[in-house]
Structures are given as structure tokens and as C-alpha cells.
Specification:
With about 170 residues, the chain is of the alpha/beta class. The chain has one domain: Rossmann fold (3-Layer(aba) Sandwich). Helix content is about 45%, strand content about 20%. The chain is built from six helices and five strands, in the order αβαβαβαβαβα. The chain has a five-stranded parallel sheet with strand order 3-2-1-4-5, with helices on both faces. The radius of gyration is 19 Å and the shape is globular. The N and C termini lie far apart (about 40 Å). Pfam families: Usp. InterPro entries: Rossmann-like_a/b/a_fold, UspA. It comes from Azospirillum lipoferum. This is Universal stress protein. Keywords: Coiled coil.
Amino acid sequence: MTDTTQSTSPEAQAPKPVRIFLVVVDDSPELKVALRYACLRARKSGGKVALLTVLEQGEMQHWLAVENLIREEQRAEAEQMLQKLAREVNQLTGTLPALYVREGNRTEEVLALIGEEPSISILVLAAGTDPEGPGPLISYYTGRGLGRLRIPLTIVPGGLSNDALDAIT
């Protein structure tokens, strides 16, 4: 005789939360490595990707009209970049990413977004390959900022090839 009883506990009926892999978009060459890694991990785990770009605030308060024009141009460029990357994410994962544009200090805005969006579950960064170090975000989040993160940080070596990324994900 087979047991036909089903578990009716809330845990058994609740859908499994979707992992969201957050990638910080900047103009570094290692961005492509972090993006591909996040996409491959999201695809294999049934997760999604979120892209964040942060526009650093200028210091031209006495030229407010000029600063506003520059900010508008930066926002338009950032949105174009996010749309281009969103197409890449869609090709790799079959889903569209969440897109975020923020203004302010990059390290603080990453933390703010993570705090506001409980579905973000992993921060993915790729380390710089130049002798100057891994990059400012990695330096911050592996140092004094580590205690402020509420999610795991995945650091991907910035020099990995697509084949190497495919092999490890």
C-alpha cells in the first residue's frame, strides 16, 4: 500500500525563493567576467541576474545647470549600457535582469540596494588583474565593509576566459 498523504506544512507549499545575483556595472574590463559568471550560475540554479550602475555625484554645485546636463547625459549612457548588458543576460539565461540606476557613492549604494531588495542573495564581483589590486569594491567589501554585507560575496578572478567560466559553473 502506498502513502498518498501530502505534506500540507507551509514550508512544503511555499515556492522556493529565486536567487538573485547582483552585478555592479562599471567600465572595468573584468565586468564581463563577473557578468558571465553570474549569468551561468543563475541559469544553472534557476536564479536571475540584477544589474546595478551607480552614477557618482559631481562636485560642481556652483555650476548646477551644467551638472544637471552632465548628470542627464551620464544617466542616458548608463541606461544604454544596461540595456546592452540586459540583452547579453537574456541570451545567456533566457530571462531579463532587474536593472537599477542609482546616484551617489558606489559602495554605499550597493549596500543600500541589498538592504532594500531582500531577493538579492549574492553579490558577484570580478577582481581586477592589474598590479594595483583587485579594485575598490572588492577592497572595501573584503575589508571594513565585510561586516555590513547581509549576503555572500563571490569574487571571480578577472582574467578567467569564457571556457574557464563555463567549466567552473
